[in-house]
């Protein structure tokens, strides 16, 4: 067993772990990341595309924003197509100047991976059998197997950035965890293509055939989603079938402009709302998907991971600066306040925009639920105050500053 030491042991080299590691390193707080797969495998996951201002500011503070600022696209708003009628949610006008950045999760992860390697920071990729020990003592540690050797990583704190299927959440005793969950009766079939986006802003489509989203990664690369039943498999969807269905769900002018082409990635993501409380246990702290999941309808998944990082980063800096770890007990309460805002907004947007093919939804007949949700969306879209409620939450509630 090879024993090594660091201040902060991070499990997972996804966007959460890499962003936290980069921020801590800039403050001279030593950290090591233990990651199960290769860096290329992490980059192969096609996920989020919209960054809130808070996330963009953190990336700049971490010193890894050069390519994002050069290639990212600032979006002043987005459209909602309500049974074919287009409503613009003018974020900039409705929020007094706030916008969002369109820059793929893959790209931000790549930038942080490269910055971490350039800074000579340690990441143990392709590590197996990671396990977290003694988090309720002042000497927690992580064990893992890497490159033919067993390791023991001694540390001050362990941060679980290991996603929904990771080990860190399960390290909190089951009787000490409260898990909240809503699994949706449909998934999102995503397609990536090197074709020009159908619009220069995102279009969220509510249609009788189900939800669709037209997004992008650049001026030459598009990202599209279709709501599909849970029992569908990617192989059920040829590119041709995907494009035909997308045309039927996009508003007319957009459908007429749609440029189709071969998919370079196609995958189905299940949708769930999930929160684990608390988000800490002794010297273990959960960040991002390790603690919570949202349906991507509100573009909050990655952004909630960033606000967790912001809270824990500030608390860790304060704890080391003042040599007082007691401040860390505030993390879960601070992080969860913003998490539940994001959870509710994502659940609300999902209820309004999707077609629920359950016979009973929310304790009522599907037809009744459909009337309530269509009327809700109709009200919010046709009143400036309603569009302002959507815009204020889409750009992201402010991060809590920690004194
Ligand atoms: P991640 O899951 O990204 O990273 C966790 C890392 O931990 C992974 O690299 C994993 O390999 C590693 N790990 C796991 N177990 C480990 C172990 N035992 N030991 C060591 N390492 C371990 N969000 C949006 O805003 N918009 C979207 O469109 C969107 N689409 C999504 C599609 C899918 C299929 C999924 C799963 C999520 C999607 N999300 C989306 C949410 C997504 O962007 C997450 O919020 C984001 O990846 C969270 O980042 P992390 O918390 O770093 O977790
Ligand atoms: C994406 O571009 O992947 C994306 C954008 C907005 C969402 C979900 C996904 O709400």
Low-confidence stretches: none
CA distance, first residue to last residue: 41 Å
Main beta-sheet strand count, sense and barrel state? 8 strands, mixed
SS-based class: alpha/beta
CATH class of the largest domain: Alpha Beta
What small molecules accompany the polymer chains?
A: arabino-flavin-adenine dinucleotide, P-hydroxybenzoic acid
The CATH topology of the largest domain is given as FAD/NAD(P)-binding domain
Helix content: 25-40%
* Rg from Cα: 21 Å
**What's the CATH architecture name of the largest domain?**
3-Layer(bba) Sandwich
Tally of DSSP β-strands: 23
- Counted up, domains total 2
Question: What do the pLDDT scores average to?
Answer: 97
Total helix count?
A: 13
Strand order of the largest sheet: 7-6-15-16-17-14-18-21
Shape: globular
CATH superfamily membership of the largest domain, which one? FAD/NAD(P)-binding domain
- The share of residues in extended strands comes to 25-35%
Provide structural commentary:
The protein has 403 residues and is α/β, with parallel strands linked by helices. The protein has 2 domains: 2-76 and 99-181 and 272-350, FAD/NAD(P)-binding domain (3-Layer(bba) Sandwich), CATH 3.50.50.60; 184-270 and 358-393, D-Amino Acid Oxidase, Chain A, domain 2, CATH 3.30.9. The chain has 13 helices and 23 strands. The strands form 5 sheets. It has an 8-stranded mixed beta sheet. The chain has a 6-stranded mixed beta sheet with strand order 9-3-2-13-20-19. The two termini are 41 Å apart.
């Amino acid at each position: 067993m090879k024993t090594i030491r660091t201040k902060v042991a991070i499990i997972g080299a996804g966007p959460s772990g890499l962003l936290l590691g980069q921020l801590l390193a800039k403050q001279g707080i030593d950290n090591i990341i233990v990651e199960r797969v290769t860096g290329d495998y992490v980059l192969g996951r096609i996920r989020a595309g919209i960054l809130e201002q808070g996330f963009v500011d953190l990336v700049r503070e971490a010193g890894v924003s050069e390519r994002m600022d050069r290639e990212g696209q600032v979006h002043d708003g987005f459209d909602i197509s309500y049974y074919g009628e287009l409503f613009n949610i003018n974020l900039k006008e409705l929020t007094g100047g706030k916008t969002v950045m369109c820059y793929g999760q893959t790209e931000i992860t790549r930038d942080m991976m490269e910055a971490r390697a350039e800074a000579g920071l340690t990441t143990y990729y392709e590590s197996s059998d990671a396990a977290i020990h003694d988090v309720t003592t002042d000497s927690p540690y992580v064990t893992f197997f890497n490159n033919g050797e067993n390791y023991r990583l001694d540390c001050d704190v362990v941060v679980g950035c290991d996603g929904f299927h990771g080990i860190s959440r399960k390290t909190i005793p089951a009787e000490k965890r409260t898990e909240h969950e809503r699994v949706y009766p449909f998934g999102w079939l995503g397609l990536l293509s090197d074709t020009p986006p159908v619009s220069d802003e995102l279009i969220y489509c509510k249609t009788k055939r189900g939800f669709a989203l037209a997004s992008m990664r650049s001026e030459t690369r598009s990202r599209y989603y279709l709501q599909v039943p849970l029992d569908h498999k990617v192989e059920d969807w040829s590119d041709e079938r995907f494009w035909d269905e997308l045309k039927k769900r996009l508003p007319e002018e957009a459908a007429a402009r749609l440029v189709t082409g071969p998919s370079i990635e196609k995958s189905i993501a299940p949708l769930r709302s999930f929160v684990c409380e608390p988000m800490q246990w002794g010297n273990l702290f959960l960040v991002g998907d390790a603690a919570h999941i949202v349906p991507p309808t509100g573009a909050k998944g990655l952004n909630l991971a960033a606000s967790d990082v912001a809270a824990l980063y500030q608390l860790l800096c304060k704890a080391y600066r003042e040599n007082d770890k007691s401040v860390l007990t505030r993390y879960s309460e601070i992080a969860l306040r913003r998490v539940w805002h994001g959870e509710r907004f994502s659940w609300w947007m999902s209820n309004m925009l999707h077609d629920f093919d359950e016979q009973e939804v929310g304790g009522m007949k599907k037809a009744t639920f459909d009337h309530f949700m269509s009327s809700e969306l109709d009200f919010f879209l046709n009143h400036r105050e309603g569009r302002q409620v959507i815009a204020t939450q889409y750009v992201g509630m402010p991060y809590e500053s920690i004194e």
